[in-house]
Amino acid sequence: MKKLEIGQRAPEFSLPGLDTHDRSLESFKGKRVVVVVFTCNHCPYAQAYEERLIALQRDYGDQGVQLIAINPNDADGYPEDNFDNMVKRAQQRQFNFLYLRDENQRVAHAYGAEYTPEAYVLDSKFNVRYIGRVDDNWQHPEKASSHDLRDAIAAVLAGKPIANPVTHAIGCTIKWKL
C-alpha cells in the first residue's frame, strides 16, 4: 500500500454518512481546507483525540474548514466500529464534524492510511498538504508541545508552507479485513 505524498491530489470518494447521505470529496468544493481523519470507535488513541477534533472543527469551521472523520475498520472483527455504533458514538460525543463509513476500506487504501487517528490536510484544490498526527501527546492534551494538525490547518489558511508536513501518526493500526 502506497501512502499519498505531499502535493498529490487526494483521491475522490463517496461514502455514507451517519445521516445516510453519501458524501464525496467533491461535495466540499468551496472549502478552504478539508481535513480527512481516519479514525474509529474502539481505539483508545482515537477516543482520546475526539475532543481535540471537535475543538478543531469548532475553532476553524467558520473559516472554511471541514473536518471529515472516516472509519475504515473491519466491523466483523471489531463490532464496536460498525455503522450503528458509529451513530451512537457520534450522538454521545456530540460530534460537530462528519463521520463516514469506509466499509470496503477502499478509501483508506487509496490514501495509504495506517493508523486511527491519522490526519490528511487538503487545500481548496484537494491537494495533500499535511499527513500525520494530531499532536504529540495523546494522553494529556494540556502537555502537548507540538500541535501538528492545528498548525497545518493554520498554515494552509494563511497561505504559508507547513513547517512539518509529515509526522508519524500516533494510534492503533487500521483493522483490515482478511
Describe what this molecule looks like in 3D.
The structure is a single chain. This protein is of the alpha/beta class. The chain has one domain (29-173): Glutaredoxin (3-Layer(aba) Sandwich). The chain has 4 helices and 9 strands; from the N terminus they run βββαβαβαβββαβ. The protein has helices at 44-60, 83-93, 106-111, 148-158, and strands at residues 14-16, 22-24, 33-38, 65-71, 98-101, 115-116, 118-123, 128-132, 172-173. The chain is globular and about 45 Å long. The model has no long low-confidence stretch (mean pLDDT 97).
Keywords:
Glutaredoxin; two-stranded antiparallel sheet; 178 residues; globular; 9 strands; alpha/beta
Spatial order of the strands in the main sheet?
Answer: 5-4-3-7-8
The count of strands amounts to: 9
The CATH C-level name is Alpha Beta
Compute the CA-based radius of gyration: 15 Å
The biggest beta sheet, please? Answer: 5 strands, mixed
- Structural class per helix/strand content? alpha/beta
Question: Can you identify the CATH superfamily?
Answer: Glutaredoxin
Terminus-to-terminus distance: 15 Å
- Uncertain runs are none
What string gives the helices and strands in order? EEEHEHEHEEEHE
For the record, the CATH architecture stands as 3-Layer(aba) Sandwich
Shape: globular
* Estimated helix fraction: 25-40%
- How many helices? 4
Mean pLDDT metric: 97
- Strand percentage lies at 15-25%
Count the domains.
1
Annotated CATH topology: Glutaredoxin
